[in-house]
Amino acid sequence: MDSPRDTPRSLSESSPIDVLHVDADPEFAALVAAALERECEHITVHTETDPRVAVDRVRRDGPTFDCVVCDYDMPDLDGLDVLASVRAEYPELPVILFTANGSEEVASEAVSAGVTDYLRKGDDTSRYQLLANRVENAVERYRASQSLNRGLAAIENATDAVCILGDDGGIEYANAACTELFGYERAELLGRHWEAFYPDDDVQAVYDSVLPEAREGQWSGQSSLVRKDGSLVNVEHTLTSTADGSLVWTLSRVSKRDRLETKLSRRERAIDEAPIGVVLTDPDQADNPIVYVNDEFTDITGYSHDEALGRNCRFLQGEETDEAAVAELRAAVDEREPVTTELLNYRKDGTEFWNRVRIAPIFDDGSVDLFVGFQDDITPRKTYERLLRSNTARLEALFEHSPDLVVVHDDDGTIQDVNQRMCEELGYGESDLVGKTIWDLDPASDPERSRAFWTGLPANEPHRFEGELERQNGTTFPTEIHLIQLNVEGEQMFVAMIRDISEQKEREAELVEQNERLDRFASVVSHDLRNPLQVAMGRFEMLQDDCDSDHLDPIDRALDRMDDLISDLLVLAHNGNDAMEVEPVGLADLARACWQNVVTDGATLVVETDAVVDADRDQLQQLLENLFRNSVEHGSADGDVTVTVGETDRGFFVEDDGPGIPEDDRDTVFEAGYTTSPEGTGFGLNIVSQVAAAHGWEVAVSEGAEGGARFDFRVD
């Protein structure tokens, strides 16, 4: 059994990812591990085929895993049971259900249970590339959340007292250090106005000078504040304004020198792990050079810490950098004001990247001590915007001439635009629809549930669901809807591409009715026919003991034939009703196992292939066993027949050296009831044909190398 690293990684190690993969099928589990590690070289997969062992392993080694990928349909515990166990131990650890047995109900239940992502298995390698992308995205969000939680924990456990003052001056948050500083319980601090901590003679001065300066950005200074017991405590404290109008109040009783050194050490550790690039520059030195960069800055730019320190930030600029954006940054530094802008920068290797830069002065005793710069790589967003602009005309043409009904609405459900196809189908004019809400067109939908669903919809990822629309004349029709959320100029917009699925629903209803008939037929065959047949067989065995007659052997053969007919009829009924589970199947091993299930007398099996076929194992087993029985039943009188299983360029074959199938009969051998053997049911080759068709294979009958029958299956 493989093991991940013994200790959890820090967030600064952004490349390696350890995935625990849980799947009861060893062969498929090995395939997923190989595919993921091939798609993403920094992913390491640790496999468990027993879900109970996997749950125990998560309890023991959970912090060492970055993500759990789990099948749904497994013995003992299913994927949702594994999810519940993981969530009980590690509520934020990413869990992705990767399963073949999926449905909208399973997906909905998984989302309700807190699954991170849900992905259906497929029969092409693109599914593994998609799974690798989902794993990377989930781990990235997980690590960012961990970083944020550590930042919040750092504030709560900080040695400095930290309060947040609302716009009314009352304390909205106080960390643990505040209770020690002021002598109040935390509940007593919440809601208390800042005036309660100042001597009466100092309150007006705070209103006159401290608060105005803090509202403009930041104020720092010394004060004597009042504790709960009436004593005074001398503090160094800072008030910093935030965008929502509140103030962050930090206080410390230690000397300024000690406070600054402690704060620098703590903040540097936190900034090192920040998920954005952070730069500090010193305006007191010539050319305002960089004095600190964090790890994310080096990842974004490609420059090491040593290569960046001592240089002005302009070294990232290049030929295509916008001079207006540069001038905006320069003016803000000169005026000691904060600013945010976007500009094209260059990495060390010369490649371009779009950089959103936010800079702000850091004040100390009323003067600027340092400048802090935050740098985000927004290249993907800029690329998308450029692509969107370049394709606007084509998108508008697609919108208007799409065969689908297209509607654009905002996050409140109000329709902003529709295409002509939408108007034609519903019987409205465009002006009749724009301004309505989507609930006017689908009265059965729930606005609250819809809004909650939109809130959790990932941007730029389409989500499929089904609904119903109402025409102007009051008639309704079922729909398939593909909904995607877009951010347009900072606002959320939703584009719904809608398709009328009335015919599909009619076919599904017919299929349900057909399956119900098959179920009833299978019930009659398996119970109402097999039960009396078993009674007849039992009575016949007793009759053989009681008397001797020439009629006994024909009766025995007739009963056996009836039993074979019932078995084949059940196979035909269930083949049309059972869902296929396609997986890689080793043809040689399965052929040998099937041979053991067939009464072969003196027949011989020869296997000349190591091919692996993507198939439903149970149905492929039924196909091979029926072909083997067909060869044995139609072989020579002494049972001396050889059956060969081999591979071709396009698939595989099964042939024998028996009497073969007449050329005139080769077009009819797969029809129900066809047989040339008195022991045959006439359904064996029909079952072979149905199994092949269910897999999308082509089957052809020809003469074998030794004159017998040959069945070729084209599977690609």
UniProtKB/TrEMBL annotation:
It catalyses: ATP + protein L-histidine = ADP + protein N-phospho-L-histidine. Transmembrane segments: none annotated. Pfam families: HATPase_c (PF02518), HisKA (PF00512), PAS_9 (PF13426), Response_reg (PF00072). Residues 147-201, 263-336, 391-441 form the PAS domain. Residues 337-390, 463-513 form the PAC domain. It is an enzyme of class 2 (transferase). The modification 4-aspartylphosphate is found at residue 71. Keywords: Kinase, Phosphoprotein, Transferase, Two-component regulatory system. Its EC number is 2.7.13.3. SUPFAM superfamilies: ATPase domain of HSP90 chaperone/DNA topoisomerase II/histidine kinase (SSF55874), CheY-like (SSF52172), Homodimeric domain of signal transducing histidine kinase (SSF47384), PYP-like sensor domain (PAS domain) (SSF55785). InterPro entries: CheY-like_superfamily, HATPase_C_sf, HATPase_dom, His_kinase_dom, HisK_dim/P_dom, HisK_dim/P_sf, PAC, PAS. The keyword Nucleotide-binding does not apply. Gene3D superfamilies: 1.10.287.130, 3.40.50.2300, Histidine kinase-like ATPase, C-terminal domain, PAS domain. PANTHER family: HISTIDINE KINASE 1 (PTHR43711:SF1), TWO-COMPONENT HISTIDINE KINASE (PTHR43711). NCBIfam families: sensory_box. This is histidine kinase.
